[in-house]
Design a protein that fits this description.
The chain has 116 residues and is α+β, with helices and mostly antiparallel strands. It has three helices and five strands; from the N terminus they run H-E-E-E-H-E-H-E. It has one domain: HIT-like (HIT family, subunit A, 2-Layer Sandwich). Strand 2 and strand 3 form a beta hairpin. The chain binds adenosine monophosphate and zinc ion (ZN).
Length: 116
């Protein structure tokens, strides 16, 4: 998978539409097409990083920023108080289907633990 044919690269470049609720120079947050909770967003860096295993030392600031944006979105969309879950699926056993790093931000219902 290269940035040319990667689904999330195409979304971050604006070539494929998404229901975006937040964006800046580093990342986009948009609604998941197949929501698993009343509020289900994907936090997607503009940089093509295939999986969590491919995060480099130079990406530290980006990873921190992702979590700051998660809390910003939670406050702005009104689920900071009730709570939420951030999930990253990594490779096969993790259930990753899109090989461009992303974090699911789920909210709006009581989420079960352990996950399926
Ligand atoms: P994962 O299975 O962790 O790799 O997550 C990929 C997520 O991307 C799934 O929850 C899909 O529903 C979601 N998804 C796939 N295509 C799109 C799209 N075009 N727009 C928004 N979400 C998408
Ligand atoms: Zn990509």
């Amino acid at each position: 998978m290269t940035p040319t044919n990667c689904l999330f690269c195409k979304i971050t470049r604006g070539e494929i539409p998404a229901d975006t609720v937040y964006q800046d120079e580093f990342l986009l947050v948009f609604r998941d097409l197949n929501p698993q909770a009343p509020q289900h967003f994907l936090i997607v860096p503009r940089k093509h990083i295939a999986t969590t295993l491919d995060i480099a030392d130079t990406d530290m600031e980006l990873i921190g920023h992702i979590h700051r944006v998660a809390s910003k979105v939670a406050f702005e969309l009104g689920f900071a108080e009730s709570g939420f879950r951030i999930v990253n699926n990594c490779k096969g056993d993790g259930g990753q289907t899109v090989w461009h790093l992303h974090f699911h931000l789920l909210a709006g219902r009581q989420l079960n633990w352990p996950p399926g």
